[in-house]
Amino acid sequence: MIYPLLWMLSSSVKPTEIIFRDPSLWPSSFDLGNYVEGWTALGAPFHQYLLNSAIIAVGCIVGNLLSCSLAAYAFARLEFRGRKLMFAAMLVTIMLPIHVLIVPQYVLFSQLDWINTFLPLIVPKFLATDAFFIFLMVQFIRTLPIELDEAARIDGCGHFRIYWRIIMPLCTPALATTAVFTFIWSWNDFFSQLIFLTDQDLYTVPVALRSFVDGQGATSWGPLFAMSIVGLAPIFGFFLAGQRYLTQGIATTGIK
Fold this sequence. Notes:
single chain; MetI-like fold; transport; 14 helices; cell membrane; Carbohydrate ABC transporter permease
């Protein structure tokens, strides 16, 4: 499973002309020129694409943490008419592929004049559109004793204070799981970013990496592999930093 990653890492320090002639994992010669060339090969320095991806990822994380936790609290703690039906409808949306939604989304965002901005990629996250994370948090909140809410209500807390002061601090594992998955999915997203972003200065890492590929066969493989390693580094770092919470969050929400 790890072999392709190791091969890509090895190929990133090989001259492009010998990458496919020398399949060994240990390169016969180290050439860091691929990193230098790849960093400046496109219209802007590669750190610009890293920054664009980071802006989108941070916006998606904040949006999912706020909106999905609010929706989860409502489904798990509030009694209102149609709750079960709405919860079932929310779960059904998990089965809808992005290809079904992308056309009406594009029409809507085009009418709002949001095309070629980060707004189509960030704003929906503030509207609780990721049903998986709502379901994950609902399952976690249901494991918390309802007596905590009742004690807070006796002390004069309303629903929002119970949510903010009681539920959210206890939901740290579920929130960390949401943050890690959101970061990985938004950082690796290619299709929607390719659709909504047309200005090269707004490209994210996946879209920028696609620019290295030449349909005529003149692909710069060395710089492509080098920048792929650079693009993977934040994912590994974020995942390792939240691994403990990620495992705890999944284990305590009933998802096996």
